[in-house]
Amino acid sequence: MHFFQYRDSQLFCEEVSVAAIADQVGTPFYLYSLATVKRHFTVFDRAFSSSLHLVCFSVKANSNLALLRVFVNLGGGFDIVSGGELYRALNAGCDPKKIVYSGVGKTSAEIDYALKSDILMFNVESPMELEAIAEHARRMGKEAPVALRINPDIDPKTHPYIATGLRQNKFGIDIDSALREYEAASKLSGLNVIGVDCHIGSQLTEIEPFVEALSRLKWLIAELKDRGIDINYLDLGGGLGITYQEESPPEPRQYAQALLDELSPLNVELILEPGRVIVGNAGILVTRVLYLKQTAGKNFVIVDAGMNDLLRPSLYQAYQAIWPVDKTQQGTFVADVVGPVCESGDFLARDRCLSKVEPGDLLAVMSAGAYGFTMASNYNSRPRAAEILVDDDKSFIIRERESYVDLIRGEQIPAFLGDSG
Ligand code: LLP
To answer: Between 127-139 and 178-187, two packed helices, what is the crossing angle to 10 degrees?
Structure first.
């Protein structure tokens, strides 16, 4: 459920007209509904209320400081994968003891930063990384709290680029060598082994892969207990899918119930790392039609947002619904919706049945709140879009549109190349 709805054929975000925002801030822009974000977080959090748990929003899905602050205010923590995300999480006011840190390539500087910040847990992805973290911690006279990220070898039945829990993926430690690695970790000074972690993939629309992964981790936790290694935290990652088109993913309540049923009677604190399910359908990308063009057998709607603004259609052939902001126009036609970027792969939709549009019309690319702005780039020297947050009848710029000056910030022309004259 979300709060983007038509009123008299005009698209509204909560109580604010989308067209009115476009007039104020120009296009393209990302637009988020605060009520939707809060509702999704709260529904997800409550679904686990019968168990000790912490919802660590996955910052990579949407890292805008204002949204992160919303989650802090709701009692959430964060799943981070870089020093940059740690910086954002801390700037949003997050208690470091609610931050878990995953990722296969943590650098020395990032490990030091996380150790200094006293985060809750490192989710460690390889034996070499384990050694590195232990060594850094010893040097700082600390004990690093760690979980091993387990690769349970489960097919999440999702797009191959976002499946992460199969043996051939780069993520985690093979479940078959997990016991050995845990024993090694428990003997390393500088480490405090407190958790087991896994994340098997993203945009999952079935419960079974999650439950199967959990059942393998349960086995592991029991084996560890027999060996005197007590686990306090079980981090089940994120991955719950959303409806982009016709998918019918489980409701958070069903997902939570299935996990909690499988979990009992283990006595551990659960950590969840949802991203998409919280923000995906809480955000849209608003773009304006520039031109219409027909070539032999094809219609193109050329808009002012491109693959640099929203990469998902190009990268994963992902479907994102496209709604007219004003739906009074009668009639439909089939077209590709493409951006201004100089790549044939620059499209937001292909062979899509759209309501008729004219240059100047506004289109809303739906379900763009997760992995939208965070995957945006400056390709073709295009300033990144503005981000707007609506709260009831008010809207706030939560990230200004980039300027040309922003584009060249940090670049330097060495003196030997001469003056511009
Ligand atoms: N935890 C870890 C360790 C992750 O790698 C991810 C996502 C999450 C949690 C959050 O997963 P979610 O609940 O959002 O599914 N760019 C792709 C998605 C990549 C997901 C990467 N990892 C897309 O646009 O579909």
So the answer is: 10
Residue that is written with structure tokens 């993939």 in the block: 201
Calpha distance 86→258 (Å, rounded): 31
Which residue out of 40, 58, 122 has the highest number of ligand 1 atoms within 8 Å of its CB and is therefore the one to mutate? 58
Amino acid at 285: L
E strands present in 265-308: 269-272, 283-295, 298-303
Task: Please tell me the pTM assigned to this model.
Answer: 0.97
Q: What's the distance, Cα to Cα, between the start and end of the chain in Å?
A: 59
pLDDT tens profile 136-176 = 999 999 999 999 999 998 888 777 777 777 777 788 899 98
Asked whether the bond before 324 is cis by omega within 30 degrees of 0, the reply is no
Q: Of the candidates 393, 100, 372, 386, which has an alpha carbon nearest to the alpha carbon of residue 233? A: 100
> What is the pLDDT, as a whole number, of residue 421?
67
- Provide the residue count of the chain: 421
Query: Would you say 150 and 212 are in contact if contact means Cβ atoms under 8 Å apart?
Result: no
User: Is residue 62 within 8 Å of residue 70, measured between CB atoms?
Assistant: no
Q: Choose one of 206, 276, 310 to mutate for the ligand 1 pocket test, by most ligand atoms within 8 angstroms of C-beta.
A: 276
Residue 153: how many CB atoms within 10 A of its CB? Answer: 18
Distance of CA 175 to the CA centre of its chain: 25
Which among 56, 198, 342, 353 is annotated as catalytic?
Answer: 342
Q: Spell out the alpha helix ranges (H) of 264-296.
A: 276-279
Using 70 as the pLDDT threshold, list the residues of the chain that sit under it. 421
